[in-house]
Design a protein that fits this description.
By secondary structure, this protein is α/β, with parallel strands linked by helices. The protein is 54% helix and 14% strand.
Length: 278
């Protein structure tokens, strides 16, 4: 009996030759590049397996403060791998298949979902540097990051609807908070590609820069992040993410409990003394 789809995809990812993801460490930051440009960095099994492993390792590195996620030109990520989707459709049509949609669910939850949960939950800051088209789950990765920067060549591609899919891997959450319900629905149903300037105007990206300046802009944000006291970043990121779903009273209470701890740090005391002496 053939291996289940999920297990087969994991095996394909583990056994693949070649580097689908590149990692470059630069002191207190790292640049992670999706590196299958001939396929616009579609999320193949090797790329996903390597990306999850790389981010897991980087998240555990205490010396890192920020992680930049980008793609090798000409694209950020075309999203899901159509070959894998076709294989899943064929498997689901096989009367001998026993796992059904639960096998697809495992890939979505344990691979795609694990990556966005890691981005959101690690105390390190994630900066997406969107260098070209970002679609599907690739777009979900970018929108999950703490900051999303775009080059002038970036394109935001709502590919879900034309494939008969829904916004996935956290995209529905990100879109409704940035665009509101009707804006998110129009983005999904309209299926229109957005250029970088329009994406910024809508709040889907934070900053648009010249293409050749994209990684420098991401590095500048890493400098700003590195200038924060370590405890400030580690405490502010989960606070701000929790506040997105909290009531005003709930967010206020979270801040009230967290702030006194900051008063006990040397970084705060030194900053107060320096400002008092100015």
């Amino acid at each position: 009996m053939t291996a289940p789809t999920y297990e087969a995809m994991l095996a394909a990812g583990d056994e693949a030759a070649g580097e689908a993801v590149r990692v470059e460490r630069r002191g207190d930051r790292a640049v992670v590049t999706l590196a299958e440009p001939e396929r616009l960095n579609a999320l193949s099994a090797p790329l996903v397996v390597q990306l999850k492993a790389a981010l897991t390792e980087l998240a555990a590195d205490r010396d890192l403060r920020a992680i930049v996620l980008t793609g090798e030109d000409p694209g950020f990520s075309a999203g899901g791998d159509l070959r894998m989707m076709r294989q899943a459709v064929e498997r689901l049509a096989d009367s001998a298949d026993e796992a059904g949609t639960t096998d697809v669910w495992r890939w979505i939850r344990y691979e795609f979902g694990a990556i966005v949960r890691l981005i959101a939950r690690t105390d390190k800051a994630f900066v997406a540097a969107v260098n070209g088209p970002a679609a599907g789950v690739g777009l979900a990765f970018a929108l999950t990051c703490d900051l999303t920067l775009a080059s002038e060549r970036a394109r935001i591609v709502p590919a879900f609807g034309r494939l008969g899919l829904i916004p996935e891997v956290g995209t529905s959450w990100a879109l409704t908070r940035r665009l509101g319900y009707q804006g998110a629905f129009a983005f999904y149903a309209g299926g229109r590609h957005l250029d970088a300037a329009e994406a910024r105007a809508l709040g889907l990206v934070h900053e648009v820069v010249a293409h050749d300046d994209l990684l420098a802009a991401a590095d500048a944000w890493c400098n700003r992040i590195a200038a924060l006291p370590p405890h400030a970043l580690a405490m502010a990121k989960p606070l701000l993410r929790a506040a997105a779903d909290a009531t005003w009273d709930g967010a206020l209470a979270l801040e009230e409990f967290a702030e006194p701890s900051c008063f006990t740090t040397r970084a705060f005391a030194d900053a107060v003394r320096a400002m008092s002496a100015a």
